[in-house]
Amino acid sequence: MKNNIILVLVLISLLLFGCNNQKTSDENQILSVTIEPQRYFLEQLVGDKFTVKTLIPAGANPETFDPTPSQLINVSKSKIFFTLGTLNIENIIVEKIKENNPEILFENCSIGISRLHDETHHHDGDETSPHHDGDPHIWSSPNTAKVIIQNMYNSLISFDEKNKDYYKKRYDKLISIIDSTDTTIKDYLDIAPNKNFIIYHPSLSYFAEEYGLNQFVIEKDGKNPTPKQLANLIDIAKEKQIKVVFIQQEYDIKSAETIAKSIQAHMVPINLLNYNWNEEMLNIAKAFSHE
């Protein structure tokens, strides 16, 4: 997959360079982000000052995503590209774009966030595993979302200082939304009879860490579990009386269906690439209170 990406980038290098010299004034007001939740945060901050583009669309798998030439061209038109800072795909994209568009600023939104490793999801030092250096889903909790937003805000006021007051008002409003979401999540979890859950892919490490939940993962080293591993997880689920199994459209749900049926749990679809970040966080919290 990496070789394909590099090939695509090489083929469009000259095109990117050419586009860079033909930017209109409107195009000069573009900012880019990697995923949709980042777009939500950034659009709340910038209002009508910039147009925000997303590289990876909702529904795509960030760990296997292969960008199209048009998606890369959109990034090349940006004044700033706010990377998530935790996805391997970003490293390839950033290096190639830097070669042809050295004037673009790149801001890493993960600065200040410690990477979490899910204890039930070991990789035995395998650096080819997508999570060998920790869970990349750093936006999946209010605390980490605030750090991402702070990094975006700091970059904005440095880049466009004349509108600092405008951004500050919008920043304060966004933080109040995050705090309100956090309060509602706690209300749901306070009445939850069980703080354990199952998920195919370890995507909720930060959410679990923030709220004292226990995440049990179906996949093993990025692969479907063996029958023995599946049976062991079912035994654990029964012992822990787990009633919530989260599923995501990017991943196979057959194992989740087997587990949910065996332990009489309900499957809850989630979409961590949902633009409406606060809506998705509340959807996750509600699953625990509605057991």
Structure commentary:
The chain is an alpha/beta fold and 291 residues long. It is built from 10 helices and 8 strands. The protein has helices at 2-20, 36-46, 69-76, 88-100, 142-159, 164-190, 205-211, 227-240, 254-263, 277-289; strands at residues 30-33, 51-54, 80-83, 105-108, 196-199, 214-217, 244-247, 266-269. It has a 4-stranded parallel sheet with strand order 2-1-3-4, sandwiched between helices. The chain has a 4-stranded parallel sheet with strand order 6-5-7-8, with helices on both faces. The chain is globular, with a radius of gyration of 20 Å. Mean pLDDT is 85; it is low at 6-27 and 120-132.
List the helices and strands and how they pair.
Blueprint: H1 2-20, E1 30-33, H2 36-46, E2 51-54, H3 69-76, E3 80-83, H4 88-100, E4 105-108, H5 142-159, H6 164-190, E5 196-199, H7 205-211, E6 214-217, H8 227-240, E7 244-247, H9 254-263, E8 266-269, H10 277-289
Parallel strand pairs: 1-2, 1-3, 3-4, 5-6, 5-7, 7-8
Helix pairs in contact: 1-3, 1-4, 2-5, 2-6, 5-6, 6-10, 8-9
- Alpha-carbon Rg, integer: 20 Å
In DSSP terms (H or I, runs of 4 or more residues), the helix count works out at 10
- What is the helix content? 40-55%
Helix and strand content put the structural class at alpha/beta
What's the average pLDDT?
85
Q: Which term fits the overall shape?
A: globular
The count of strands amounts to 8
Q: What is the H/E order?
A: HEHEHEHEHHEHEHEHEH
Main sheet strand line-up: 2-1-3-4
Strand content: 5-15%
Distance between the termini: 40 Å
Could you state the oligomeric state of the chains shown? single chain
Largest sheet: 4 strands, parallel
Low-confidence stretches: 6-27, 120-132
